[in-house]
What we know:
- The protein has 279 residues and is mostly beta strands.
- The chain has helices at residues 19-23, 241-249, 258-278; strands at residues 2-6, 9-13, 29-31, 41-42, 51-53, 63-67, 72-77, 84-86, 102-109, 117-125, 132-138, 141-147, 154-160, 166-174, 178-183, 186-191, 207-211, 214-215, 221-222, 226-235.
Amino acid sequence: MIVSRLNGSIVAVALMASAGSVMAAGPIAYWNMDDAALSPAALDSVGVADAVAGAAADGNLPVAGVPGILGTAWSFDGSNDNALTVIPPNQAAFTGLGFSGWSYSGWINSPIGAGGADTVFSITDAAAGSEEAALRVNNGALNFLGRHNSNNNVDITGSLVNDGQWHHVAVVSSAAGGTILYLDGSPEASSPDGVDIATFTANNNNVAVNFGANNDNGANLQWEYAGLVDEFSVYDVALSANDVAFLATNPGATVPEPASAALFAGAVGLVSLRRSRLS
């Protein structure tokens, strides 16, 4: 609570202690990937969706503590089941991502010449095949694949990112705005169709959320990713182009929830108006 005393009058504003604190709210999950070497999981700093390194088929688990775009990152080697998984029941936090809008945002570093269909992050129906919302590096190019049997499929591809450099990547989807794939703050590809994740995650027990691989039909993981991931977040709103541009130039930042931004703006306006009337 900020309290401002003006000419004996008290203006109380329901805000946090600083503008920075107010503006920090937003994502429903945020993995800063600053976990120490040998950590068993990538911790979600705003929710409960910690992503755990499971038992890889070849024994090679993702590795924490490697240099990132900011702090440290997690490294994936592209081998069998080399992934981080949000374990039940915490994956249920993502079942409400629907046509009203949702977004993924994060940083990746894909090795020079990497190929294949590599999944950076995906939300899938693990009880049915070909139902996913997967951000990928497909044959070296940034790609988003959204499939469900009751929606139009979305498969959009941008520029090559397999250059060994850090890139900001994002996908924004809603029924009203369609689906837009961003690279380094700029739109790369789009579809007029939105992707309704909620329709294929209605049963919480069937939802699979993974970094580094895609869970298809609840059997083996597929499309394992080779590369680094850092500062990844999921929003339950469709971010604006300005939001994405901001994230692309401010690693480690998040964007505010509309309600928080409006509250802050309104509070500043109230104090300013009060001062102008008293001057």
